[in-house]
């Protein structure tokens, strides 16, 4: 009987030791810090990880790690390289882990600047034409709005790029991949009802990001209008709204940029009323609501007239809009 009781006691003791050992193993598993592969998966699945569509991870490494088992904290600094068809990118992140009863959990993921391995990108290709033109349109519209606010206290009613009435060519494209810079010349042909305008701009673009939380994109670093030329389309007869006055142009006037910003009665070959009277009237392209007196203007002022006028399609006679008569 005693022998049997001793045997039962020994079996119970063995089971107890086995259970304690199993619990110790479980506890040890829970306290073990995360592996590099687990940290990589945590980063890729984090909403704070910035990854462009089409990019793949080409390198992941831990550059520094501070594990404090006694207080259950683990701070990991990682470097990740990515690449897509447009550019290569390096990002650095700080990841904070805390140990809970069920193991280590990721609390914080945030970008940080590692001065030995700085966040950077290296562009591989020129920006596409749509990107170039979209940036040019945005900057052009902003310039026109700025001019209108300064001179007319309001936004423009029309823009140089509008209504699909323009064509463009891109020339002298040059990519400086080492510095993420691209420059080119863009020539735009714009058709209005009264005038055709050709403008050539110099653009310098930089591939950059505004912050660690934003994607890399092209922005305009520098823009300059190199040339501006135009051809007026005035030939024909024009009348005002009450059909009492008719103005006749016998040719399409080409106004040079160093001449006049307005076409005046002195530039007309003929002015006539349906009543037969030959009294002349000033013909003015509406600009800044100023008087209709003859103004000799500089190239800069003329360029502003062509580039920034609220309504380049408006031709007026004594402040009344003229309408071109059918041929």
Write the layout of secondary structure elements.
Layout: H1 2-31, H2 36-44, E1 56-68, E2 73-83, E3 87-100, E4 103-111, E5 120-123, H3 129-152, E6 166-176, E7 181-191, E8 195-208, E9 217-232, E10 236-239, E11 245-249, E12 270-273, E13 283-285, H4 299-308, E14 315-317, E15 320-321, E16 323-324
Antiparallel strand pairs: 1-2, 2-3, 3-4, 3-5, 6-7, 7-8, 8-9, 10-11, 10-16, 11-12, 13-14, 14-15
Describe the protein:
With 327 residues, the protein is of the alpha+beta class. It has three domains: 36-121, Nuclear Transport Factor 2, Chain: A (Roll); 129-232; 236-324, no CATH class. It is built from four helices and 16 strands. Strand 7 and strand 8 (195-208) form a beta hairpin. The termini are far apart. The model is unreliable at 20-30 and 254-302 (pLDDT under 50). The strands form four sheets. Strands 1, 2, 3, 4 and 5 form a five-stranded antiparallel sheet that branches. A four-stranded antiparallel sheet has the order 6-7-8-9. A four-stranded antiparallel sheet has the order 12-11-10-16, with no helix packed on it.
User: Separation of termini?
Assistant: 130 Å
What coarse outline follows from CA principal-axis ratios? elongated
Q: State the share of residues found in helices, binned by percent.
A: 10-25%
Largest sheet: 5 strands, antiparallel
| Rounded mean pLDDT score | 74
Q: Which residue ranges are poorly predicted, with pLDDT under 50 across at least 5 consecutive positions?
A: 20-30, 254-302
Q: SSE order in H/E notation?
A: HHEEEEEHEEEEEEEEHEEE
Number of domain units: 3
Query: Quick one: how many beta strands?
Result: 16
Classify the secondary structure makeup into a structural class: alpha+beta
Radius of gyration: 36 Å
């Amino acid at each position: 009987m005693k022998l049997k009781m001793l045997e039962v006691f020994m079996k119970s003791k063995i089971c107890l030791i086995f259970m304690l050992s199993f619990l110790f193993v479980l506890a040890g598993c829970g306290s073990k810090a995360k592996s590099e592969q687990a940290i990589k998966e945590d980063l890729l699945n984090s909403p704070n990880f910035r990854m462009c569509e089409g990019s793949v991870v080409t390198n992941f490494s831990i550059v520094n790690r501070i594990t404090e088992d006694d207080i259950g904290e683990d701070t990991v600094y990682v470097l990740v390289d990515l690449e897509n068809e447009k550019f290569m990118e390096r990002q650095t992140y700080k990841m904070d882990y805390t140990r809970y009863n069920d193991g280590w959990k990721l609390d914080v993921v945030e970008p940080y600047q590692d001065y030995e391995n700085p966040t950077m990108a290296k562009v591989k290709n020129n920006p596409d034409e749509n990107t170039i033109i979209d940036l040019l349109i945005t900057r052009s519209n902003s310039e026109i709005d700025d001019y209108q606010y300064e001179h007319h206290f309001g936004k423009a009613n029309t823009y140089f790029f509008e209504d699909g009435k323009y064509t463009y060519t891109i020339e002298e494209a040059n990519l400086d991949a080492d510095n993420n810079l691209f420059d080119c010349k863009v020539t735009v042909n714009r058709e209005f009802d009264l005038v055709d305008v050709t403008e050539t701009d110099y653009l310098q673009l930089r591939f950059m990001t505004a912050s660690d939380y934003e994607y890399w994109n092209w922005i305009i670093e520098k823009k300059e209008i190199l040339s501006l030329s135009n051809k007026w389309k005035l030939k024909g007869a024009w009348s005002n709204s009450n059909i009492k006055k008719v103005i006749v142009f016998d040719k399409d006037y080409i106004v040079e940029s160093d001449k006049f910003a307005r076409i005046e009665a002195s530039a007309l070959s003929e002015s006539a009323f349906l009543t037969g009277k030959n009294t002349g009237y000033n013909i003015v392209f509406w600009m800044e609501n100023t008087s209709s007196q003859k103004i000799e203007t500089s190239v800069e002022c003329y360029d502003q007239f062509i580039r920034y006028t609220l309504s380049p399609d408006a031709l007026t006679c004594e402040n009344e809009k003229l309408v071109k008569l059918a041929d």
